[in-house]
Write a structure and sequence with these properties.
By secondary structure, the protein is α/β, with parallel strands linked by helices. The chain has three domains: 14-108, NAD(P)-binding Rossmann-like Domain (Rossmann fold); 113-299, UDP-N-acetylmuramoyl-L-alanine:D-glutamate ligase, CATH 3.40.1190; 309-440, Protein-Tyrosine Phosphatase, Chain A (Alpha-Beta Complex). It has 16 helices and 17 strands. A six-stranded parallel sheet has the order 7-8-6-9-10-11, with helices on both faces. It is globular and about 65 Å long. It starts with 13 loop residues before the first strand and ends in a 6-residue tail after the last helix. The mean pLDDT is 93.
């Protein structure tokens, strides 16, 4: 893929990567920098034991030095560029980042390096408080089914830098972006990279206050993706966000409720709307694509792991893994999606986890309507405020309690509405444990 933006140069540079992480970004950027001829210090607060898997994948290299356990400002001596993991919260006041700024060190992220290597005229960027992963994957699926060379990348996992060097010039990229990634790309100043050809915001609700410190900063980060668009770009968002149209001078594509794509393979009215957003994104990028072909493609989309994934069924009980649900709004969408299959009174909901300071009252208020609300994690106490809610502490205990109460025709839904970091490394690990428990311990309900 050819670029029309400024490409970073790292040959001979001294670079510090702040945060290896477990999602592939730190691993990918470190490999990329070494391949570019940079001298790299890889610095993470975690231990070698905690990072054993990504460190094993990285291996040894004569230009690589690994420093674990803390972010010591002395490591910045002689450094040209600091690459920050986007997961680092409110980086603008992080002591290590501030120390780098004071020394005049260039500060960037893996996603910015990768994005500047792309031809932004072939990029669809998708964000949203809920639905961004599914909409991104649906858009990629639809384009691929219609014969378009397409890569799915970004917040959905892995590192774009692992693939960008092998992209065909005709390849289009569907890029899922988190609010943190948008901040790093365009939120710090007016010198960000070129805007994408298409930008979509699937939904908005307060989230990630722990990272942004307040809702206004989070909201502005989401809106920034629309604000930076040029007249040659297209903004796509659902009718509920139509008020955001004034933020940008770019052409707009408003997805109405009547545009929802029915009979999708994955349940829920929100997924019907996600499918409509995916079609709008694909056609905004490539107007010659046939609507009926795109609709048939999104209907066939089987869903993503950990996103309303139908993962087990036995003796009339169906288990759905929605571990990617890390906001209260996403949990509400998942519960509503179940209503196309059963009444709410037949749904056993597992919710809770790491406290991101989100308002969980909406989830707590579901308890009397459900077969049961089983609360886990550090937010369990706040969720267990209504009758029919059980403070289970852990996912294992929640599943044990459910198996005491479940009966044929019920649905067991893991849709936490919270992050996983209090008990799991990430939402994937949480979802995988749920699948293990669902497939190994589904007893015969009465």
């Amino acid at each position: 893929m050819l670029t029309h933006d400024k490409q970073p140069e790292f040959n001979g540079s001294r670079v510090l990567v702040m945060g290896l992480g477990r999602f592939g970004g730190g691993l990918g950027v470190t490999r990329y920098l070494l391949g570019q001829g940079a001298s790299v210090i890889l610095n993470d607060r975690d231990s070698a034991e905690a990072l054993a898997d990504p460190l094993a994948q990285l291996g040894e290299h004569p230009m690589l030095r690994v420093e674990l356990g803390s972010h010591d400002p002395a490591l910045l001596d002689g450094i040209d560029t600091l690459i920050v993991n986007p997961a680092v919260p409110h980086p603008w006041d992080h002591p290590f980042v501030v120390a780098a700024q004071r020394r005049g060190i260039r500060i960037t992220t893996e996603i910015e390096i990768a994005y500047r290597l792309l031809d932004s005229r072939r990029v669809i960027a998708i964000t949203g408080s809920a639905g961004k992963s599914t909409t991104s994957a649906m858009t990629h699926h639809a384009l691929s089914r219609c014969g378009v060379s397409t890569l799915l990348a970004g917040n959905i996992g892995g590192s774009l830098l692992d693939a960008v060097g092998d992209l065909d010039p005709d390849t289009h990229v569907v890029l899922e972006l988190s609010s943190a990634m948008i901040y790093w790309l365009w939120g710090r100043d007016s010198q960000g990279p070129m805007p994408p050809a298409v930008a979509c915001v699937t939904s908005y609700a307060p989230n990630h206050i722990d990272w942004h410190l307040d809702e206004l900063h989070y909201k502005r980060s989401k809106q920034r993706l629309i604000e930076i668009l040029s007249k040659d770009s297209t903004a796509v968002f659902p009718s509920e966000l139509e008020s955001w149209a004034s933020i940008t001078s770019a052409p707009k594509q408003i997805v109405a409720e009547s545009d929802a794509v029915e009979d999708c393979a994955i349940p829920g009215s929100h997924n019907a709307r996600n499918a409509a957003c995916a079609i709008a994104c694909a056609q905004a990028l490539l107007p010659d694509l046939v609507t009926d072909d795109l609709a048939a493609a999104v209907r066939s989309f089987p869903g993503l792991p950990h996103r309303l994934q139908r993962c087990a069924e036995k003796d009339g009980v169906v288990y759905f893994n929605d571990s990617k649900s890390t906001t209260p709004g996403a949990t509400m969408l998942a519960v509503n999606a179940m209503e196309s299959l059963v009444e709410r009174a037949r749904v056993h909901l597992i919710a809770g986890g790491y406290d991101k300071k989100s308002d969980l009252s909406e989830i707590a208020n579901l308890a009397p309507q459900l077969a049961g609300l089983y609360a886990i994690g550090t937010t369990a106490n706040s969720i267990c405020s209504r009758p029919n809610a059980f403070n289970c502490g852990t996912l294992d205990h929640a599943m044990s309690r459910i198996h005491e109460r479940v009966r044929a025709g019920d649905i067991v839904l893991l849709s936490p509405g919270c992050a996983s970091w209090d008990q799991f490394n990430n939402y994937e690990q949480r979802g995988e444990r749920f699948v293990e428990l669902a497939t190994s311990r589904v007893g015969a309900p009465s």
